Structure formats: structure tokens, C-alpha cells
């Protein structure tokens, strides 16, 4: 057997391993962990809408909420393990491709690589909090956004970089919302294993949750563009401030209620994905 055949055999074995049950369990655990975070963020946002604005409606707020529950430390470790699973699943997709006929396309593998970096950071922050360092819960997403924005604005062409990033986030938000409304997620689900009633319920969570998630992304991007134009890094908004801003629109707190309910729906949709997604 020559060297090229040996290398080809090694790649095939690695690809089979990446698509094995271990990675499938990691993916489903990761989707469940994502659902927990979005569900808690949505609940915290609902509390804000009804007058309880003491807690942050972002990932740090969700982690802190878990820590305060009975057996909170155990729950945090379980959440962290799930997020590690999500990161490993995305890494396997970046290396070997994802499910579907075009799963090995360069564009999809690049997106998976970006998701791996994101979830690796999120997993690290939750692990740090669970281990007792508290680094995962210090500082709101708003303060982090202001700090990062200020540093970028100080760079040459910093305003253009922040503005371009903001436009990109708006586009991503519109794509997320649009794909949810068009039910593009059907291609990723094992629809044949669902009853008609289950499919309708999944569509409620998928469409409503995806639309709300896309709206939050688009709003955050608009704020970033405004910061770049005005050159005011102190006005940068993280997830918490972005969510709170919906209460200050002409629709009042009821728009915030709708967005918060949508984030809860997206959490439930993530649980459905954990059960029926093709991996």
C-alpha cells in the first residue's frame, strides 16, 4: 500500500470516527445546552419587561441564575460539558464536513470553524465560572461590548471596522430571521420521525424563536453602526442592553415581551433540534 492510499484510508477512518455516536451525543448535548441558555435569557428578559430589571438578560445572567438554583454547581458543570460537546461537534464539521449533500462545501466548513471558536469561548467562560474563578460571570455583555468597541475604534480605520461589523451582524440577523420564517431548518430535521402535531409545535418554536433571535441580532448590528457613525464607544450595546432597548420603542414593553417570548421559543426549538436534528 503506497503513501497516498494510506493517507486516504486514514482520512476515511477519521471521518467515520467524526460521524460516530460520540460526536452525535456531543452535538445533541450541545444543542440542549444552547436551549437552556436561550430559555433562561428569555425568562430573564420577560422579568425585565414586567418590571424586574435587576438581572442581566444575557449569557452571564443565565449562568448566574443557574448557579443560584439547588445543585447549581452540578447544573453548571453539566451545562459546560454540553457546550464543550457543541464546540467539538462544530470542530468535527469544520474538519470533515456536516450532514447533507453539500456538507463538505468550503463555505459550510468555514462557518462551522467560526462556530467552533465561538462555542469554545462560551464553554471556557462557563467552565471558569463552574470551577470557581467566576470569570464567566464577571461583567455584563454590555460592558464587554463597550470595552471591545473602544479598542477597535482606536485602531486605524476603526470606525470603518466597527461599521462593517455592524452591517455584517444586521445581515446575519436578517438571514437568521428569514431562514426561520421560510422554515429552512426542515432540511436539518428528521421530519419523518415526527407526528403531524409535533411538527406543528416545532414549527411554532422554530419560526417564532428564529424570528426573535434574528431581530435581536439585527438590532445589535444597528447599534454598532450607530456607534461607528457617532464615534461613541460608550453607547455600544451587548445582548442585555439590546434586549432592554425594545422596551423603549413606540410599541413599549409589549415588544420586549414578544422578543423575550421568542427567545424562550428558540430555547425550546433547540431542545427539538437536540432530539431530531440530522448530525
Please supply descriptive tags for the structure shown above:
mainly alpha, about 280 residues, about 0% strand, about 75% helix, single chain
Give a short summary of the structure.
This protein is an all-alpha fold and 279 residues long. Helices cover 74% and strands 0% of the residues.
Write the layout of secondary structure elements.
Elements: H1 3-18, H2 21-49, H3 59-67, H4 72-96, H5 106-130, H6 141-153, H7 158-181, H8 196-230, H9 239-245, H10 253-276
Beta strand count: 0
Query: How many strands, what sense, and barrel or not for the largest sheet?
Result: none
Strand content: under 5%
Q: Catalogue the unreliable spans.
A: none
Number of helices: 10
Helical amount among residues, as a percent range? over 70%
Amino acid at each position: 500500500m503506497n503513501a497516498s492510499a494510506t493517507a486516504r484510508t486514514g482520512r476515511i477512518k477519521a471521518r467515520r470516527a467524526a460521524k460516530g455516536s460520540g460526536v452525535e451525543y456531543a452535538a445533541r448535548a450541545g444543542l440542549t445546552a444552547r436551549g437552556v441558555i436561550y430559555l433562561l435569557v428569555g425568562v430573564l428578559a420577560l422579568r425585565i419587561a414586567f418590571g424586574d430589571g435587576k438581572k442581566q438578560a444575557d449569557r452571564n445572567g443565565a449562568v448566574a441564575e443557574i448557579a443560584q438554583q439547588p445543585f447549581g454547581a452540578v447544573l453548571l458543570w453539566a451545562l459546560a460539558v454540553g457546550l464543550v460537546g457543541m464546540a467539538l461537534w462544530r470542530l468535527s464539521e469544520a474538519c470533515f464536513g456536516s450532514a447533507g449533500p453539500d456538507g463538505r462545501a468550503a463555505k459550510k466548513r468555514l462557518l462551522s470553524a467560526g462556530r467552533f471558536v465561538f462555542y469554545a469561548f462560551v464553554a471556557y467562560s462557563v467552565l471558569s465560572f463552574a470551577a470557581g474563578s467566576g470569570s464567566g460571570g464577571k461583567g455584563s455583555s454590555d460592558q464587554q461590548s463597550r470595552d471591545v468597541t473602544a479598542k477597535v475604534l482606536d485602531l486605524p480605520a476603526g470606525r470603518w471596522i466597527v461599521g462593517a461589523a455592524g452591517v455584517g451582524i444586521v445581515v446575519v440577523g436578517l438571514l437568521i430571521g428569514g431562514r426561520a420564517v421560510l422554515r429552512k431548518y426542515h432540511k436539518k430535521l428528521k421530519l419523518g420521525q415526527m407526528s403531524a402535531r409535533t411538527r406543528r409545535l416545532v414549527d411554532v418554536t422554530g419560526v417564532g424563536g428564529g424570528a426573535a433571535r434574528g431581530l435581536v441580532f439585527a438590532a445589535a448590528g444597528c447599534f454598532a453602526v450607530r456607534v461607528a457613525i457617532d464615534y461613541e464607544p460608550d453607547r455600544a450595546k451587548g445582548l442585555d442592553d439590546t434586549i432592554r432597548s425594545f422596551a423603549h420603542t413606540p410599541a413599549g414593553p409589549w415588544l420586549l415581551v414578544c422578543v423575550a417570548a421568542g427567545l424562550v421559543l428558540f430555547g425550546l426549538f433547540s431542545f427539538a433540534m437536540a432530539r431530531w436534528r440530522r448530525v
